[in-house]
Every structure is written in C-alpha cells, then in structure tokens.
Amino acid sequence: MKQKANEMIQDLATKSVRKDMLLELTDKQYSNLTLMALRAGLHNAKELIQSFVADLTGWQRNGSDESQFANTWYDRAYCITTDFLMPWRYYVYNYDHDIEQLTEEPDSLKKAYEHYCEECKWGGVEPESWDEVLRVNQELLQEKKEDQEQLMQYIEAEKAEIK
Predict the structure, then answer these.
(1) Do 107 and 151 belong together in one domain?
(2) 40 vs 23: CA distance, rounded Å
(3) From the CB of residue 18, how many other CB atoms can be counted at a distance below 10 Å?
(4) What is the Rg, in whole angstroms, of the alpha carbon atoms belonging to the chain?
(5) Are 111 and 91 in contact (CB under 8 A)?
(6) Per residue of the chain (163 residues), what is the pLDDT tens digit?
C-alpha cells in the first residue's frame, strides 16, 4: 500500500501539459462537454476530461466503480475482448521503440519484429504482416512529423501572445 502511495506521489510530480494532445472539438462537442462538467460541479471541461482519464487509466481515479465503467466503455467502444490482441502500433508504443530508429536501422526493426512475433505467438494470435508493419511505420513517422509541426505552431502562438 505504501509503495503504491509513493508511486502515485512520484507520478503526480510528472503532471504537465501534454502539448501533443491538443483536442479538436466541434462547437457543440465543446459546449456540451462544458455543460456536463459544470453540472458535475467541476470548473470546466478540462477537469472532466482529466477525471475521466484518471478513471480510465486507474491513476488518481474517482473510485472503483467509476474505473470499472470507464473500462467497460473502452472495451465496448473499441471492441476489446478478453482475446489477446497486439497491433504493431501498440507494440511500438508499449515497448518504447523509437520509430525513427526502427526506420533508419533495419536490424533494429527486424529484431523488434521478431520479438513482436514471439509475443503474438505467446498470445495465440497472428502478428501483423511485415508489409503491414512497414506501412504502419510510415504512418507513425508521418504522425510524429505532424505532431512536431503542431507543437511548433503552438509554441509560436504562445510566443506571439507573450509579446
């Protein structure tokens, strides 16, 4: 119990604005989300989203029931079943692979793919094909580039506001 409390305290110290998670909402989505937050006694939609993320991830959650319902929503919305599933995109993120390194170093990619195939075999599912992995890698590279561009635009906008 004490170890979990210490881990949560350490995790709280890492709380920061995640600039790669700028939400794109329609006016109606934003308005309705804000109304839901205010109705719950929160100050804004940001607090509601943070609260939901806490329940969904199990960190600083609102309670076990809330966490269970958040996970039920996730399972239903994304068709996650008790069957083992590991898309390559998940594998890359879960094992902290650097997508640029995997792309630039064929041996690293081959080794990662072999490990991925072993993990899938252990779980009793077919891994994604080599061609699919190469396609997903290109998507991940493009997404990283777009995230970096979006972050630079955000930083420039912040600088302009300061002036």
Answers:
(1) yes
(2) 21
(3) 7
(4) 20
(5) no
(6) 688 777 777 877 887 777 778 888 999 999 999 999 998 888 999 999 999 998 888 877 777 788 888 888 887 787 665 455 788 998 998 899 999 999 999 999 999 999 999 989 888 888 999 999 999 999 999 988 888 888 888 888 888 888 7
pTM beyond cutoff 0.85: no
Same domain, 74 and 95: no
Query: 95, exposed or middle or buried, with CB in 10 Å at 0-12, 13-18, 19+?
Result: exposed
Helix, strand, coil tally for the chain in percent (to 5): 70, 0, 30
Query: Where in the sequence is the domain holding 125, given as residue range(s)?
Result: 88-162
Closest CA to 58 of 40, 74, 80, 79: 74
Question: What's the CA gap between 88 and 119, in Å, rounded?
Answer: 11
Measured distance CA(142)–CA(148) in Å, rounded = 10
Same domain membership, residue 100 and residue 66:
no
Which two structure tokens, joined as six digits, stand for 144?
């990283």
Tell me if 4 is assigned to some domain.
Answer: no
Cβ–Cβ < 8 Å for 104, 89: no
